[in-house]
Structures are given as C-alpha cells and as structure tokens.
Amino acid sequence: MKFVTRETFGSLIDWAGFVEALDQGHRYPAAHIEDVFLGPPGRTLLSRAAWIEGLGYGVKSVTVMAQNAARGLPTVQGAMLVFEDRAGALIAAIDSGLVTDVKTAADSALGARYLARKDSRSLLIIGAGQVARNVAAAYRQIFPGISQICLWNRTADKAATLAQELAEQGLPASAVTDLPDAVGRADMIVTATMSQTPVLRGDWVRPGTHVDLIGAFRADMREADDALLQKARIFVDSRETTLHHIGELSIPLASGAITEADVLADFYQLNQGSPGRTSPEQITVFKNGGGAHLDLMTACAILGTGGPAAGKERR
Q1: Where are the alpha helices (DSSP H) in the chain?
Q2: pLDDT tens for residues 224-269?
Q3: CA-to-CA distance for 17 and 20, rounded, in angstroms?
C-alpha cells in the first residue's frame, strides 16, 4: 500500500495530465456516490464515497472543525483511501487536501477546455485563496495563450499578494480593484469565494465569456446572480451533485428563475458528444460542484492507475 502526502508528491503538477485523467474518467460507467455527515455543526466528520466500475472504490473522510482556526490548527484534516475494483485490496492512503486541491482546479480547467473560446487570452479570478492559486496555474497550462491573469478580492491586499506570488512564478498576474470593469474585459472568469450572495452580475459579463463558478458548495451559497444564469448556456460537472444540493443552482431553480432543462449537460454528456459552446458570442457558465467520483478519478491519476499518469510534471 502507498502513502502519498503533499511532501512526497511534490509541488510540480502536470495540470494538463490531471485534466485529461478526469476526462477519461468519464468514459467509465457512471459513478455510484454517497456522502455521510456525522457530528454537530462545527465539528463534523464528512465521508464521501464513490465506486466506478473498472476504476475502483474511494472514500475521502475529513473532519471539519470550525474552532480550530482560533487555536492555530487546520480546520479540515483527513485522508483518501483507494481500493482496487475487483479484489477490493486497499491500494493507497492519500492526503485529502492534496486530492481536493488538485481535483478542484482540474475540474474547472476541464470545464473551460470544453466550453471556453479557444482564443481566450484574459483570465479574471475573483478570490485570492488556495483555489485561486491552483486555478491560475491550471488554466495557464490548458490555455498557454493566456497573456493576462487579473485577481480581485474583497480584501485588496490579498489579491495583490497573490498576484505578486504568481508573477514571481512566471505567470502574467496583476491585481485589480474595479470588479465590473475587470469582468467586462475578461475572456474567462473564475469565482472562488465563500460568498452567500452573488458577487458576479450578469449585466457586467460581455458576450463570448466563459464563467467558472467554484466557490459555492452549500445550499445557502451562490456567486452568480439570476441575470447571468438566464443569459448563459449552463453546464455542470455532475447533475447529481449540483442541481439540488448547491445554492448556485438550487436557489434559482426553486424560484423559477431557471429550470432543470436550462442545465444543458454535465461531463458525462459532454464526453459523449453533447454540444457545449456552439458560437463565439455565447456566454457559457460552468458550475464546479466537486463530488466523490472526481476525488476517486483524481486519486487514481495521482497513483497512475486511472487514465494517463498525472503525477509530477514531466521535465
């Protein structure tokens, strides 16, 4: 059995390899997934399990301890267990944070590979945390023609700090303070916040833009307003994990602002040839909902057991 930590895995990530591994993972039979929550609010054990026939079984279990922040301790801690498909042997235990970080950025980059204009040159990231850092690197590998990465955050200093870090890594990053103006100039927009109310307005988004919504993961969270959803072609990574579980879609579905028919395809359908973007002028919206099946696909790619080995960046 293998043990994989951030330290043993290393910091150089072949994002294109992980994106391809997720795409190939959707050529297997549809995943069986289940989530289990235990404990009181603020002290929760979350276990997310998936089985994909031909790929294997995976369980990612994490504790979410809100009070740890005040004590200088990690708020989320856990591990991902991967089991072989036929005999059920335990193959590996992987740091859950590594799996989550890689999965989240690769998930979004795959959505952009399907839906964004191929000539996209400018990327705006709303948010300045670890997700924003990973997404910037992943998008640049998938769209090497990106010549501008703008960062906006409610706390401007955080955006400036991250922009400087990315620039030192060779990425064309800079911080911006005028969000509506930055939105109107971007070819691709990523939202990676913890907002419960929309931070992105449809009136700001120009034709041809691809929007990638990452941050909302609870039923009371959303980052885009109704106007954006109503003027866009909407796609998700998984219908099962997004439509009725995350406020980004469940709130406008409940109000009647959109219908389930407005969600045109998920990754399984896109992989089988469902149309994504069909003209340069369309606005596309992709909801990154995550899910245990994506954790399993990512873990197998880390181990080199599913699709192309997507471990450390090839030199």
Answers
A1: 6-9, 15-25, 96-115, 130-142, 156-168, 179-185, 226-231, 239-242, 247-255, 267-271, 292-303
A2: 999 999 999 999 999 999 999 899 999 999 999 999 999 999 999 9
A3: 5
Q: How far is CA 27 from CA 86, 191, 255, 269, in A?
A: 18, 28, 34, 10
Domain assignment of residue 278, yes or no: yes
Residue 130's CB: how many other CB atoms inside 10 A? 15
3-state secondary structure of 273: coil
What is the tens place of the pLDDT at every residue in 197-221? Answer: 999 999 999 999 999 999 998 899 9
CB environment 169-207: b (16+ within 10 A), e (fewer): eebbbebbeebeebbeebbbbbbbbebeebbbebebbee
Count the domains in the chain: 2
Q: Is 304 left (phi over 0), alpha (psi -120 to 50) or beta?
A: left
257: how many CB neighbours lie within 10 A of its CB? 14
> Do both 84 and 132 map to the same domain?
no
| Residue 311 confidence (pLDDT) above 60 | no
Residue 119 · residue 143 · CB < 8 Å: no
Average pLDDT over the chain reads 94
**Total Cβ atoms within 10 A of residue 24:** 18
Q: What is the CATH number of the domain that holds 23?
A: 3.30.1780.10
What burial class does residue 256 get, using C-beta atoms within 10 Å of its C-beta: 0-12 exposed, 13-18 middle, 19+ buried? exposed
CA Rg value for the chain: 19
Q: Do 88 and 32 share a structural domain?
A: yes
Structure tokens at 200: 């992105």
266 closest CA partner among 48, 51, 111, 35? 111
Ramachandran class of 39: left when φ > 0, alpha when ψ lies in -120 to 50, beta otherwise: left
pLDDT-based confidence at residue 69 (cuts at 50, 70, 90): confident
Domain co-membership, 92 together with 109: no
CA dist 290 and 216 (Å) reads 11
Asked whether 257 and 250 are in contact (CB, 8 A), the reply is: no
